[in-house]
Amino acid sequence: MTMVAPWEVKAAAKRAKLAASIPKEYMIPEHDLPPADRLDVSQAPKELLSKDVIELTELTATEIVNAIAKGKYSAVEVTTAFIKRAVLAHQLLNVFTEFFPEIALKRAAELDEYYKSTGKTIGPIHGLPISLKDQFRVKGVETCMGYVSWITNEPEKENSTIVDLLLNAGAVFFVKTNIPTSLMAAESRNCVFGQTVNAYNRTLAPGGSSGGEGAIVSMRGATIGIGTDIGGSIRIPSSFSGVYGLRPSHERFPYLKVANSLEFSEAIVSVDGPLAVSLPDLTLFSKALLAQEPWKHDPRVLALPFKDYEIPPRPLVFAIESNDGLVTPHPPVLRAIKIVTKALKDAGHEVFEFKPYKPDEGWNVVLRAFTVDGGENIQGDLDKSGEPGIPDIQMFIKGYKALTMSELFTFNKDKLEYKTAFLEYMNGVRSPSGKKIDAWIRPTTVSASVPAGQLKIRYLGYTALLNLLDYTSVVIPVTKADPAIDVATPAPGNGLFMEIEKKLWEDYVPEDFTNGPVGIQVIGGRLEEERMLAVAGVVDAALKA
User: What are the angstrom distances between the C-alpha of 23 and each of 62, 106, 138, 491?
Assistant: First the structure.
């Protein structure tokens, strides 16, 4: 008889508790669901949900809050519709970690009563259901962040600050979504809740660590979800799931009382931000949050109200990077860059090929930043339960030793020197016509969405460098992998990281990446959220023209 480890019993009990929290009336009968061999389920909601639910959940967040403000929909109607669509997303993709419809519907009813009695909305996102990555704390709801040792069956006693502020703005929270153990992986699987998969091909991953958010937003189980990003964890799920995402600079949005691994490490700092079904929804979220003056609630947030940015009446200038010189992206990603380049040129903008400053030095600093404690924090939480963790995080807990105080000082010096040199380099970048750039465009990852659970995400340099620099980045969906177009070729062999590049290109079997979404990053400097949202709008419009 096979013995079941205590951690497995605890994890199974948590899964059973989650399953019991989903009322049967919200579930589609199993016999009506798409068969397991149907890989693309992105359109399944339109086949299985009622016309009214589909009509409402196909709206953008911006359209929803406007409709609620005009009295077309009630908050309860909107919340109920998204609860139903989110449950279907979970049935098909395994996205939930916590589900609390009773709390959400009670909140929605209170908002409706406020609107009925005053004729006004409580705030700019009155009645809008928003999903949350598991690490955000919600009063009365548990948080385990994919660790078995964090399963205590004790609900949170207070909210994360960003949750409180968005509630003040009118939000309705109803679900928390899956992540990788420790958050330190571009996947979304753990020993508690298992693997989350991709709506466009269920053999693929939705990215990570905010992969549950990418998956639920891609299925319109929410129009806006909130993720976090320490090395690409908003941007990679946005790219892999075919949605929009914003990685703001540190000190712009509140992060107080958010659960985390490597908590309070300043070596490289995590930020929170939105994933959404449309670019205007990223702006809606940012305006609604900053209108709550988060700097009065989180001492790390700068007092910078949202200020609309007006695009200048001239062609814009874009520095386009197709290859960082370290690891060459796969064919679908290179094709996405060509699509963007052509679209911008056709729209009359100036575009030129660009190479960043010494990305190999930046990547080495990033690796040191991720491992300053020698993996002690993550390993400690694994050891408390005896769970093995997932293979994806082993690089952060094996083979590194914690830095001494003297070594940490040296690291901080090296980090500042690199960021300073990069800034000086960027200040000197000019187009062939001698103009300063309006934005830098680069891939989000080296590949389209990768096969789930197979350790195919070998290099995060295209996102993590921007965490080191703390630059604002907006992700825009561009295309999907197509094996008929994106044919396999031998590894280019011209990247400085030749071994990584070789393995990545050996991984590339075009059929295995079929229909995997690909997004690109539109990048500006620190604290340029308004400007980059506006410039990203120019790129998005060019792509849709």
Answer: 29, 16, 20, 50
Whole-model pTM: value is 0.98
Weakest mean pLDDT among 57-61, 91-95, 122-126, 489-493:
489-493
Are the CB atoms for 365 and 357 separated by under 8 Å? no
Instruction: Please report where in the chains the tokens 């040792």 appear, as a residue.
Output: 149
Catalytic position from the list 218, 233, 238, 322: 233
- Contact call for residues 172 and 108 (beta carbons, < 8 A): yes
Residue 233 bears catalytic tag: yes
Q: Spot the catalytic one: 133, 176, 287, 456.
A: 133
How far, in Å, CA of 21 to CA of 124, rounded? Answer: 30
pLDDT classification of 264: cutoffs 50, 70, 90: confident
**Taking 80 as the threshold, does the pLDDT of residue 415 lie above it?**
yes
- Catalytic residue, from 131, 209, 210, 473: name it: 209
The total of other beta-carbon atoms located within 10 Å of residue 305's CB is 10
Question: Is residue 238 annotated as part of the catalytic site, yes or no?
Answer: no
Residue identified by tokens 């670019």 is 279
Task: Collect contacts of 487-493 with beta carbons under 8 A, ≥24 apart.
Answer: 487/331, 488/331, 489/331, 491/328, 492/328
